[in-house]
Design goal:
Elements (H helix, E strand, L loop, with lengths): L12 H17 L7 E4 L6 E3 L3 H6 L6 H13 L6 H12 L8 E3 L1 H7 L6 E5 L3 H14 L5 E4 L3 H4 L11 E5 L8 H15 L4 E8 L3 H16 L4 E7 L23 E7 L5 H16 L6 E7 L2
Parallel strand pairs: 1-4, 1-6, 4-5, 6-7
Antiparallel strand pairs: 2-3, 7-9, 8-9, 8-10
Helix pairs in contact: 1-4, 1-10, 8-9
The chain binds S-adenosylmethionine.
The site of S-adenosylmethionine has 22 residues, from α7.
Length: 305
């Protein structure tokens, strides 16, 4: 039985990196009229309340989206311009909060559904019984029934049957909770299989940077996979750092469910070409807003075969 619930973590620094990047990918892909198939292999509940129990228990959004919003408001008062990807991400969160408060946080399915055009399709996999039920209910309320499917089965297994998409255009977000050690090899196996079925798709994998051997090797193996299959890749990491009293030796967190996780990454295969520059402009700004005093950093590395 899975115990991970994304509602505890919604809007944290990892979501900021993931959702800012995912949004930039979908904006780019949406510039061409051809239909897109968007797949979220690990969808979560859809959208989250930041002012209610689960999110307040952890308070992770305080040091994530809420801190970023406050920094953006301060920058606006001083007449500063924000990087385009940051503005777009904050405006998207704002779109779900028309009263100007940040009470609602859009998870990846909600960002994706916001950008759906009539010709596009969205496939959402979720196995947690409660979150799958919440997701189905929220999707039903959207009234976009024919465009969005909620699939209550493993996204690792289900992705195969969806590739290649009929229009040969599509993007896949793979965002496991890494609650199971087997998630690490499953990401690599699923991605390799998907790339064989649909080599030109855009793939985005989120991963934690934590003190587990499997996590250390995943980022490296993802790069090696792209290189071996001769696909362009891009890897972006954001490390928000530590408080001085937390000690410089504990740069990455140990333990279940990444409690205290300070860093994470997005690995992209076949990224849109402007994305590296967009992230190189956005991440320094994000880091200035979210950083703790010790050891904060960002990186963007890429390779084209
Ligand atoms: C990190 S959360 C997803 C968050 C979401 N992508 C977002 O950005 O808003 C991971 C989700 O994957 C679900 N999950 C775990 N294993 C799964 C699997 N094999 N297939 C589909 N969903 C899975 C968990 O229940 C959890 O809701």
């Amino acid at each position: 039985m899975f115990s991970y619930r994304h509602a505890f973590h919604a809007g944290n620094h990892a979501d900021v990196l993931k959702h800012l990047t995912w949004l930039a990918i979908l904006r780019y892909l949406g510039q061409k009229d051809t239909a897109l198939q968007i797949v979220d292999t690990h969808a979560g509940a859809g959208q989250y309340r930041l002012d209610q129990d689960l999110a307040r228990t952890s308070g992770e959004s305080d040091a994530g989206i809420l801190r970023l919003r406050a920094a953006a408001e301060a920058a606006a008062r001083q007449g500063q311009h924000l990087p385009e990807a940051v503005t777009d991400y904050l405006d998207t969160v704002g779109h779900f909060n028309p009263d100007g408060q940040a009470r609602v946080y859009p998870g990846s399915p909600w960002i994706s559904q916001m950008l759906l055009r009539p010709q596009d399709k969205l496939k959402l996999f979720e196995v947690h019984p409660t979150d799958a039920r919440l997701l189905s209910k929220q999707v039903e309320e959207l009234g976009k029934g024919r465009q969005i499917d909620v699939l209550r089965r493993s996204g690792f297994e289900g992705l195969k049957g969806l590739l290649p998409p009929p229009s040969r255009r599509g993007a896949v977000l793979m965002d496991p909770s890494y609650e199971l050690k087997t998630d690490y090899p499953a990401v690599l196996e699923t991605l390799e299989d998907a790339l064989k079925r649909f080599p030109t798709g855009t793939y985005a994998v989120w991963y934690p940077v934590i003190g587990r051997p499997e996590a250390h090797t995943l980022a490296r193996k993802l790069k090696a996979l792209g290189t071996r299959l001769q696909r362009p890749w891009l890897q972006a990491e954001l490390n928000v750092g530590l408080q001085p009293e937390e000690g410089t030796s504990a740069k990455v967190a140990q333990g279940q469910h990444h409690a205290g996780m300070r860093a994470s990454g997005m690995h992209l295969i076949n990224p849109p070409f402007p994305l590296a520059d967009q992230l190189r402009q956005a991440l320094p700004w994000v880091l200035t807003a979210l950083r703790e005093p010790v050891g904060a950093s960002w990186t963007v590395t890429e390779q084209s075969p």
